[in-house]
Amino acid sequence: MTEKIELHGHELEFLKNNGKAVIEIDLGERTDECYLIDIFTVDQTDYVALISSETNEIYIFYYEDSFENDEIDLKVVEDEEELEEVFHLFTHYWDDEALDNLVEEYNSDIEHFDGFEDEDDFEYGIDEEDILEDSDSIDE
Fold first, then answer.
1. What percent of the chain has pLDDT above 90?
2. Quick check: 7 and 89 in contact, CB under 8 A?
3. Residues 38-44: contacts with CB within 8 Å, 24+ apart?
4. In the chain, where are the structural domains located?
5. Is the pLDDT of residue 132 over 50?
6. Could you write out the three-class secondary structure of 24-35?
7. What is the pTM of this model?
8. Buried b (16+ CB within 10 A) or exposed e, 124-135
9. What is the pLDDT of residues 14-70, one digit of tens each?
10. Looking at the predicted structure, is the pLDDT value of residue 119 above 60?
């Protein structure tokens, strides 16, 4: 269920995603495996927030969902002022404790998943269909 709030004169909507996803992003010279934090809206513009599974660095991209071909499109937010404002608003909802708890959930689910020899035995946590690898759709 989404949560709508007003903050600093902005209309925000959080928790628009359903479930979890592990997304590999292409950063040019390297890739980074990230956990989906949230798909959220600021003043009718959709964003996605990801957190690196290795460094805990947070990435925020423009988000577009193409329902026709079951793909997501992540675009870099080029405007530094916009990115800073969106990140500031994001951190009012997603504080350090909430992010730590989310990362712990992902790590626990992945450890639990890795404990099964046969993926068909896996009944809890992240479904194979929930895992996205989207390294080709980030425009830089």
1. 64
2. yes
3. 38/14, 38/90, 38/94, 39/63, 40/12, 40/13, 40/14, 40/15, 40/16, 40/90, 40/93, 41/11, 41/12, 41/13, 41/16, 42/10, 42/11, 42/12, 42/85, 42/86, 42/89, 43/10, 43/11, 44/11
4. 3-119
5. no
6. EEECCCCEEEEE
7. 0.77
8. ebbeeeeeeebe
9. 999 888 999 999 888 999 999 999 999 999 999 999 999 999 999 999 998 766 666
10. no
d(CA 7, CA 40): 14
Taking CA atoms, 11 is separated from 5, 100, 113, 124, in Å, by 6, 25, 38, 35
- Using the structure block, give the residue that is written with the tokens 């990801």: 50
